[in-house]
Specification:
Layout lengths: L8 H46 L10 H12 L1 E2 L2 E2 L6 H32 L1 H16 L2 H12 L3 H25 L3 H9 L4 H30 L1 H4 L8 H10 L3 H29 L7
Antiparallel strand pairs: 1-2
């Protein structure tokens, strides 16, 4: 038996609209998340190029985009018997910088999170160490980098130490605040169920503190990465910070700009990766 259902034109239009709605929503979302950032980059490059060709400033200080691109190509190839910049390709410089940042951040964040857990759990430890932590946060990296060079030399030790010291305070402060803000009701409920102090910390305090701790970790990575040029002031080649410092000595603005762009783009990628990790490890963030 065949069943015929009469569908009015209004219902047909409604169904068609319902089918098109998700597609339109996806297009709007794509435009917001991809289109606007791309548009902002295009506008920035257009304005920069207009300023460069206007002659308001010397090309030594504001080189054209083509000149910057040529510098990038030279850093990517062997030209006139010279490998990249200072004997290394740009990805080799970037690799060394990322390796230093990774080691320094791991040390600084690990120490900061552990310190934050202790400070957030033990009030007298917080009162004892918080002034020193605030003092360290207030110091710009260059303020103590030269002291580290005097103490540790000009090899890798002062660079990694500087990055670790830059990464430690944000992680420690965020973790301390997150642990202190753990709802008392959750702790009391866990104790009422017979949880030991260790179980309360591992099953209640740490999960509750993880969202803010991850925020502190992201801040730590950003601050450490912004300190990389200072960390590579001495004996920084290979390294992007060392390239920027060396090129600035000779007013080689195109290479400086290439270094800045590489640092910025790699920083964006690292932050995006941290966001993905945070989303997977802390899916309850923002949920009551």
């Amino acid at each position: 038996m065949t069943l015929f259902v009469d569908i009015s034109p209004e219902e047909q239009l409604g169904q068609a609209g319902a089918e098109k709605a998700p597609t339109g929503s996806r297009l709007r979302s794509l435009a917001l998340h991809v289109g606007l950032p791309v548009l902002s980059v295009v506008l920035f490059l257009a304005v920069y190029q207009a300023i460069a060709v206007s002659g308001v400033w010397s090309e030594t200080f504001v080189p054209r985009l083509g000149t910057v691109w040529n510098a990038f190509v030279e850093m990517s190839t062997t030209h006139s018997g010279v490998v990249g910049y200072a004997g290394y390709y740009w990805w080799e410089h970037l690799y060394m910088t990322l390796r230093r940042v990774f080691v320094g951040v791991v040390i600084g964040v690990a120490a900061g999170v552990i310190l934050g857990l202790v400070m957030g759990s033990v009030p007298w430890v917080r009162r004892l160490l918080e002034p020193w932590l605030t003092f360290l946060r207030a110091l710009p990296p260059l303020a103590y980098f030269f002291l580290l060079v005097i103490w540790l030399g000009i090899d890798e030790a002062p660079k990694i130490t500087l990055l670790a010291l830059a990464a430690l305070p944000p992680a420690a402060v965020a973790t301390t605040a997150a642990v202190s803000a753990t709802p008392v009701s959750l702790i009391e409920a866990a104790r009422a169920l017979g949880a030991s102090r260790r179980e309360v910390i591992s099953d209640v305090v740490i999960p509750a503190a993880l969202p803010e701790t991850f925020t502190g970790i992201r801040l730590s990575v950003g601050i450490a990465y912004s300190s990389v040029v200072a960390a590579e002031l001495f004996n920084g080649i290979p390294g992007i910070g060392g390239v920027v410092k060396d090129a600035s000595n000779y007013n080689n603005t195109p290479v400086v700009l290439v270094g800045i762009v590489l640092i910025g783009l790699s920083g964006l990628i690292i932050d995006g990766a941290l966001r993905i990790i945070e989303h997977r490890l802390v899916p309850w963030r923002g949920k009551a």
